[in-house]
Design brief:
The protein has about 210 residues and is mainly α. It has 10 helices and no strands. The protein has helices at about 1-15, 20-25, 35-65, 70-90, 90-95, 100-110, 115-120, 125-140, 140-165, 165-205. It is globular.
Amino acid sequence: MELFIYIFAALFSVINPLGAVPIFVGLTQDDSVAERQRISFWAAVNVFIIMLISFFVGQYVLAFFGISIDALRIAGGFIIVNSGFTLLNRKFSRSRGVNKEVENDAQRRNDIALTPLAIPMLAGPGSISLLIAMYQDYQESIQNQVIACAAMASVALVIFLIMRSSHYLSRILGASGIVAISRIIGFIVIAIGIQYIASSIVNILKTINFG
């Protein structure tokens, strides 16, 4: 249970679906309730699939390019820290790769569940690098991998519920409420990124022979 909570909290903080609520509301403001629910469902499914692929296949991508896990953790840590700072500064659109041109293109298309919702708004570089690094920690334990998959499924379920209720949440919490929550999450995200960077630097230093 502790591992499940740790993975769930880490993924939820980095993905931060609450921060995507204003963007989702803007992209679906002209859609019906049924259409919003359909988009929410498929966005959550797409995020779950992306998380699974990142978790199980990401290591082979690293091996192909000759990238060490510590290098990935440092790079991912910087991305995660940057995401945290952008949440603190309320730069949702910029941090999630949704500029005005992307938004206008999304509104012209019939389905936005994959892009820009699933990628890059929710399953961005931070969550992908986090999952690749996690697999290295749990690859020798099938039980831990199952727990990780359950945590991913739970995050996807929460994403669906939040996206489905986004227009309601937007009215209840308001812009200031969403910003306040996102800033708290942003602080946690920064701490996660720094922890990844620090642990990787320690691992690298251990391999250096100073004698």
